[in-house]
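To assess whether the prediction recovers the assembly geometry, we first specified each molecular entity separately, as shown.
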Amino acid sequence: MGVFNYTFHWRPAFQALPAMLEGALVTIQLAVLSMLFGIAIGVVLSLMRGSKNRLLSGFAVTWVEIARNTPALFQIYIAYFGLGQIGIRLDSFIALLIGITFNNAGYLAETFRGGMRAVPPTQTRAARSLGLSAVDAYRLIVLPQMFRVVFHPMTNQMVWAILMTSLGVVVGLNTDLTGVTQELNVKTFRTFEYFAIAAVMYYLIAKFVTLGARAIAWRLFRY
Amino acid sequence: MKWMPLAATAALLTMLTVPQAFADKLDDIIASGVLRCAIVLDFPPMGSRDASNNPIGFDVDTCNDLAAALGVTPEYVETPFPDRIPALVSGRADVGVASTSDTLERAKTIGFSIPYFAFEMVVLTKDGLGIESYESLKGKKTGSVSGTYEAIALEKDVTAWADPAGSFQAYQTQADVFLALAQGQIEATVVTSTVAGATIASGNFDGFMMGGKAPYEIDYVSLIGLRGEYGLINYLNLFVNHQIRNGRYEELYKKWVGEGEPPNLMIPGVYY
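The predicted structure of the complete assembly is given in tokenized form:
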């Protein structure tokens, strides 16, 4: 017997494209929201980590350590079933969003910290000596340079966020691309067709993000 | 005739080699001495694990019987519900003894034997939620195991009711559905009467109770093999027939489900 005892049924599989595209929109929505929240929390965490207050820096270190050293699957599962155990019942979408945001924030906090350090303190001093206020020096000199450094790691995290949304099925999400695909799969057992289409969609979304980011970087970061 | 010995040799070679080329799955199983059964082990009493983690249940015993009939050793490939068919198609398992509902949609992809068991569906809920019948699921948060017969039927009804307060969640395993029900993520699920009975009896979940019968068609389940493996499917059909003929079906029902009549596997008024 061959390894692949299977004949592809592409025609019925392609009929599911509209449903899968709708799922892809939910996936993009989740990834974008988790990045926006993740960036905001990440900035706060990186500032907290640099703080002299032991409580604040301890909190930030703990967050970053858990987010970076445990599986994203575990973080999402905890957001749904872990919190559920203590009576906090979240919707699957929200639990997944919290799980991915938690992960994003942890990684981005470290990215931002590294980005801050990459801008030499002499830049601030030079800006101040040229007469810029502290805020202006930070806003006009430090942040643009930091942004240039962290832009590509941020793009990577965005791609990673898109791929992480596929873990929503473990907490009962059935509206995102993987959720829709899995439902089609179990109803028809045409696993390979649907998963292949889903894989192509994930690839295109991720590719669109990296190419888009490259175009933005090309516009913004020319010397 | 100088070419005669040559032709005879060629014919002999053909006879020896060609049957090899036609060896099908049934031959492969017999030759390898191992029958690999895809079995779902979070679906008591059909499949589960005992205190020392050994696979047990109606499906496990059925796999053992099938292996014994074939004269080979059984091997269990634990498979969550959604992965049953990928396990077969990718060659990780030879047959599925996994309570697989024989839907026409799935039959486009895999081969079904005649039914070897049948389920009735009931509502499983928690006390105090006011769910007493299938109709009272309207507007409730429900959930089930992705892709099962009952999940497909329940989701269809939830969609048809179109009650904004109602919802349907699909989880990947039966264990997750029970966890979600215990935690209140969902308020009710629909499961086979056998699973409901076994789960309530297990005492693992506080307050679980039956919420009446679900008005679905009887869920006939079959053994599964690759769609093109007629030799194997033919053998599976005869095997199921013998299980009933020799009383083993009734015996296994009493052992795993309890007293009473095992489900009738004949559909009145039609040939299979």
